[in-house]
């Protein structure tokens, strides 16, 4: 009987401790994205992100997230199969579901702290919107994209009360293009504003 009471008491204390170290919040922000290539000149595209996050732990924490976002690129020229540079416009925009799992540490108190985080992220392409000029037909597999990509995120953030501000860089680890020749890796700067619900 004493063992059962002790076990229940330890369980209650553990659940209470976990609850005190668990936060849930919403986030929204902007993305500045590009597709890194070695065969084309490009320009960044402005996009968005909107989703939720959870934070488990105090000084050291794990932060899984799920958010919808937009990423893309504007190409202004490319190198064709014969090695000639062709000036031509091409635009691609992806709507993605991004799921990062970040490991972080924070310095300061609960309501005012500085955070540093890093971790992997997988992106699932939900929608693709691409418009390319006819010149890109010379590169037959240029516009053929995969449905997911892997990346690494790292950055810093500040918590002030229930408000969280994060600045991160997402470096593409996998080639999002199905082409063997035209490799494209998404890279994204992210600035987001979060609100801690509890």
Spell the H/E element sequence: HEEEEEEEEE
Give the strand content. over 45%
> Main sheet?
8 strands, antiparallel, barrel
Cα-based radius of gyration, to the nearest Å: 21 Å
In the sheet with the most strands, the strands line up as 1-3-4-5-6-7-8-9
End-to-end gap: 36 Å
Helical percentage: under 10%
Class inferred from helices and paired strands: mainly beta
Q: Please give the number of β-strands.
A: 9
Average pLDDT metric: 85
Tally of individual helices: 1
Unreliable spans are 4-19
Rough outline: elongated
Quickly describe the structure.
The protein is 10% helix and 67% strand. It is mainly beta and 198 residues long.
Describe the structure.
A hairpin with a 2-residue loop joins strand 3 and strand 4. This protein has 198 residues and is mostly beta strands. The chain is elongated and about 60 Å long. It has an eight-stranded antiparallel barrel with strand order 1-3-4-5-6-7-8-9. The two termini are 36 Å apart. About 8% of the residues have low confidence.
How would the blueprint of this fold be written?
Blueprint: H1 2-20, E1 22-36, E2 40-43, E3 45-57, E4 60-79, E5 85-109, E6 112-132, E7 148-160, E8 163-172, E9 185-196
Antiparallel strand pairs: 1-3, 1-9, 2-4, 3-4, 4-5, 5-6, 6-7, 7-8, 8-9
Keywords, separated by commas or semicolons:
mainly beta, eight-stranded antiparallel β-barrel, elongated, 198 residues, 10% helix
């Amino acid at each position: 009987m004493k063992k059962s009471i002790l076990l229940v008491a330890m369980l209650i204390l553990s659940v209470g401790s976990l609850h005190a170290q668990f936060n849930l919040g919403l986030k929204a922000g902007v993305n500045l994205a590009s597709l890194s290539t070695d065969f084309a000149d490009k320009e960044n595209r402005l996009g968005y992100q909107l989703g939720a996050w959870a934070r488990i732990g105090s000084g050291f924490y794990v932060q899984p997230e799920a958010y919808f976002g937009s990423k893309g690129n504007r190409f202004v020229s490319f190198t064709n199969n014969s090695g000639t540079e062709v000036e031509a416009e091409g635009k691609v925009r992806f709507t993605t579901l991004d799921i990062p799992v970040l490991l972080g540490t924070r310095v300061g108190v609960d309501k005012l702290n500085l955070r540093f985080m890093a971790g992997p992220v997988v992106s699932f392409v939900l929608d693709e919107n691409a418009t390319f000029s006819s010149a890109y037909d010379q590169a037959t597999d240029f516009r053929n994209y995969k449905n997911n990509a892997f990346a690494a995120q790292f950055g810093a953030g500040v918590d002030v009360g229930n408000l969280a501000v994060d600045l991160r860089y997402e470096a593409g680890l996998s080639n999002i293009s199905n082409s063997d020749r035209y490799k494209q890796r998404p890279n994204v700067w992210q600035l987001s504003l979060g609100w801690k619900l509890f």
